Every structure is written in structure tokens, then in C-alpha cells.
Description:
Helix content: 40-55%
Strand order of the largest sheet: 8-7-6-9-11-10
Number of domains: 3
CATH architecture of the largest domain: Orthogonal Bundle
Structural class: alpha/beta
Number of strands: 14
Oligomer: single chain
Amino acid sequence: MAERIGVIDLGSNTTRLVVLSYTPHHSFKLTDEVRETVRLAEGIGADGRIQPAAIDRGVAAMRLFANYCKSVGVDRIVPVATSAVREASNQAEFLERVEYEAGLKMRVLSAQEEAYYGYVGTVNALPLDNAFLIDIGGGSTQGTMIRARGFGQSFSRPLGALRISDRHIHSDPITAKDFKALEQAAADTFTDIDWFSASQGATLAGIGGTIRTLAEIDMKAQRHPLDRVHGYALRLDRLEQLIERLRGMTTRQREDVPGLGRDRADLILGGAVILRHLMRQGGFESIVASGYGLREGLFFEHLLVGENPPVLGDQRAFSVLNLARLYSYESIHAAKVRELATSLFDQLQSLHGFGPWERELLGHAALIHDIGITIGYYDHHKHGEYLVLNSALLGFSHREVVILAQLVRSHRKGDILTEPYQAVLDPSDRDRIAKLAALLRIAEHLERRKCQVIQQIRVEIGDPVRLYTTALGDASVEIWEANRRTALFRKAYGRGIEII
């Protein structure tokens, strides 16, 4: 039976509650998210005390979240606090108030734990093998080395978007003097991290609201075809241009920038300066934004209970299967379509010339080809396309998500829609999609009655291609349907096909 978990992340600037429904080692889905701006680190002086007004905001948010979890039937609450509470000289006072007024016993994460859970969330969500990870929070910034998908060394510095802005921005818009102070603060803070370098041939990934917001601003400016920050690559040269644009604006003007919310308008420049410094220092030309981070890392400890570390062995296969399960797929039928489609792929390799990557995508598309039926049978191929484009598929690039969506769209009939997605596709992808979709379409109709009557297929390459079927019984319906669905194959491969 599915459980419901609420993960609360009390940060220096914002606090978030995510609610997820899950069955351990099986499936999960995000069911709700609530956020509040608390600015715990605002006004912290040399004495290290969280200010009374900030304490009140933090306690009120925790009380609200606890009441929310109780009202919606959350089975388990996992509340954690990070930099501001970790470093506060009046930490005990704050935690006592939260426990007394909200009934929550907060776990204060160490800097190492904060980096670790950010790593767990990210390595389960992005296709990372060797990488570096940056998390720019409100009060601190963490950096982590990932090697062979494992947790390596890390650093933590007490400088985040809120703290750097609070200390060094004194005018609106920012003066040249204050902007120079931002740059100097970043340079003075991030020292002695020689291992953080692009020379090691690793990808740079980023988590946290600052990096996701910067990525979303750039996405909007570039008119990126997918409304999906997760997996978006923000280039350093684009970040440079964005910083120049933001520094000339007032906070009020920034509020109107597409992708930038009001709660970050006064902090985003400071966070962007930190990110730019780290990218320059490490020699990184781009950073990939992750929609999964600390909160999801904490959740994966429960989803993958017993695993150490709680890291998915094959994130892509798990994610596709998770999507299929969420939309009540017919597992036996889907597995048979995948078997037939990949058999066609293997036997026609000399015609299409594709390799393991395309075979993997074809297999994944076969597994989820019918998920759109959850919305409705008519046009379910288009419903499925929408679900793929708008679901949290883990481990796939934006290009791969579009290819999967188009394979699902074209599995039964209809056209392949690549024109809106040219910005993320390669020029060769339309032909690639057409050739793979032709195989998926034939495989689907060889399983027309969903009864697995077709046991095996054998291909004889010629013009036309001949496909011989071995059936357990009468397969006339499947053979009739498959022969009616050969137009795409003929167009993609330049030759006909006969199913016998």
C-alpha cells in the first residue's frame, strides 16, 4: 500500500514542503508542494543570532506545514533545517519554539549531510557519472565531487544568495561599488578548492532555487520549446549577459522578468555573481540545472530503504517504469510490444544503422506507448505525448524526452511533430524518429488484441522486406492490422514491407 511522506526543507531564504506518495522500491509521485519565504538569515549580525522577526516567520511556516500535513493524511514528516539554523547561536531557542508550537522535531543537517542529500537527489535525476555539483542556497553554498556516481569530497562556504545580498547591496539599483563588493566577496570566500575543476572532464550540475531561477530566466529568453527547467544547460556566456542585464535594473523592474519571481528579485544578482565566480574559477562553460536536490535526496532514503547509498541502479529504466505504473499501463501487453519492436530493430540493423542508444529509446517508448489511454482512448497517442513531455522522467536529456514523446505520439497513427522542438533536436532526429516509430507502429499492431498471439518474428531483408510471424493460434487480425500500418515504414526506409 502506498505511503505519504512530507519532506520539509527549512532554508535560509525559503522553506518548502513536498508531499509524495510512494511504494518502497516500486513507484512514487509528487502530489503537492508548498513554499514560503522566511528569510531566516536576514539581519544576522556578528553575534550569529537569528532575529526575532525571522524566528517568528520560521515558526509560523513550520506550524502551517505541520497542520497541512495532518489535514491531508501524511504518514511521515521529515523536517530538516540547513545553514541559517545550523550556524545560529540561538539555535536551541528556535528549535524549542518549533517543537512546542508546531510539534516538529527538526533535524539540523551538517554541511556534509546537506551536500550528501543534494548529491543523492541529483545523481538519481540527471545522467551523471563523473560530475561536480553546486548548491547555492540563501545562507551557504555547497560543492560536491561525483565520481562513478558516488559521493566524493565536498566543500561548504557560509555565503549564499541572501547572505551576500544582505551584506553588500545597499542601493537599488546596485551601485558599481556594491557590485564590486559582491565580486570580491565571492572571490574571498571560494578559495582552496583546486579539485573543483573542469580540467577533470566532468559535467557541472546545479541545484537550489537560485540556479533553477537563473536557468528558467534564460529558458524564457531563449524561447526554449520545453517548459522543463530540469536538465536545462545554462551557458556561462548567457549567464554573463544575464548579470549585466540584472545589475542595471531595480528590484521592482526585475519582478517583471519572465521566470523571476518576486521573492527572489532582490537576491538573484548576488546568487548569479556567486555562480559566475565558481564557473569561471573551475573553468566550466555551462551548468545543467536539476529539479531534484536536497528534499528529493531525503525522500530517496525512504523510497530506496535499505540501499546505501540510496541511488537507483538504472534511473532511466526505473523512471520509465514509474511513469508506466502511474498511468496504469497493461504490463504484459507493453512488454510484448517492446519485445517485438526491439526484435524488429535488431533484425533490420543493416537498414537503419542505429546502435544501443536508439534501441534503448525504442524499448522505453514501447513500454509507455499507451499511457495516454488514462485520459481517454480517442487521441491517446497525443495524450501520451503530452504526458511524456510534462512528466518528471529522470536521467533523460531534453532531446531524449522529445524523441520519446514523438515515438509515443506516432505509435498507432498520425504525424511526427518535430518542428516546434528544433532547438533541442539534431538535424538527423526526424529521420531517426520516423524509422523507430515505423517499427513501434508495426509491433503495436502485431499485438492488436493484446493477447500475445504472435510469439516470434523473422525478417527477410529485400524489397519489399518480408516479416514472417510465428503464432500460437489465429493471428489474422494482427497480420491484417499490421499490413494496414506500413506506410510510415515505406516512407522512412524507402521500401515496402509485407507481414506474413
